[in-house]
Amino acid sequence: MIRTLLVNCATINESSQDARKTAAETASDEIVMGAVQALCDFSLPVSQQNHSDLSLTAQNDELKRFHKKKGAF
Predict the structure, then answer these.
(1) In sequence order, what DSSP letters do the residues of the chain get, joined into one string?
(2) Are the C-beta atoms of residues 25 and 1 closer than 8 Å to each other?
(3) Cα separation of 38 and 33, whole Å?
(4) Model-wide pTM > 0.85
(5) Each residue's pLDDT tens digit, 30-66
(6) How many CB atoms lie within 10 A of CB 35?
(7) How many domains is the chain partitioned into structurally?
(8) Of the candidates 1, 12, 19, 73, which lies 20 to 30 Å from 40 by C-alpha distance?
């Protein structure tokens, strides 16, 4: 799943550089990319078998960041 997300993100990121896009479309792409990045940043460490207080705090911060941006979907 994560590999698929990264491949899709590259495509979205490249298309957000399109000069024909309006400012609103570019801003929307950036919000979506931020949400996807937060989800990826959360998902990768979750798969670890051992967690420290530091890793749990980092995961919680990424989950909060995702929830702030999930409205883009």
Answers:
(1) -HHHHHHHHHHHHHHTT-TTS-HHHHHHHHHHHHHHHHHHHHHHHHT-S---HHHHHHHHHHHHHHHHHGGG-
(2) no
(3) 8
(4) no
(5) 888 888 888 888 888 788 788 899 989 988 998 898 8
(6) 19
(7) 1
(8) 19
